[in-house]
Design goal:
By secondary structure, the chain is mostly beta strands. About 0% of the residues lie in helices and about 50% in strands. A hairpin with a 6-residue loop joins strand 4 and strand 5.
């Protein structure tokens, strides 16, 4: 099955930046939409951002618009989430996910994604 591994999480002060990476062990990664979700302790998993397989379509949660940028490098089978102007409320475990879909569709619900990474912790201090 498709395996995803996140990295790049860590500690950062409010207002700082952090870039998450997600390596996909699938040679057909360019056929998958990639999404990022996050989950804070005792909270439900929420959508953060997603990018179509071509990279030409993106979708962001309102809470991160203007601060986060999602991208991908299909040649490296890697997706990225560039996070800037971080806030303490961004503290959570961040998960990358993937689903095979058309380039015209960008799912934003967790149940729509088939494959998930193990998550990487992002902590933003106040």
């Amino acid at each position: 099955q498709v395996q995803l591994v996140e990295s790049g999480g860590g500690l950062v002060q409010a207002g700082g930046s952090l870039r998450l990476s997600c390596v996909v062990s699938e040679r057909t990664f360019n056929s998958y939409t990639m999404g990022w979700f996050r989950q804070a302790p005792e909270k439900e998993r929420e959508f953060v951002a997603a990018v179509s397989w071509s990279g030409r379509r993106t979708l962001y949660a309102d809470s991160v618009k203007g601060r986060f940028t999602i991208s991908r490098d299909n040649a490296k089978n890697t997706g990225y989430l560039q996070m800037s102007l971080l806030k303490p409320e961004d503290t959570a475990v961040y998960y990358c996910s993937a689903v095979w879909t058309t380039d015209l569709t960008i799912p934003s619900d967790s149940y729509e994604y088939d494959y998930w990474g193990q998550g990487t912790q992002v902590t933003v201090s106040s």
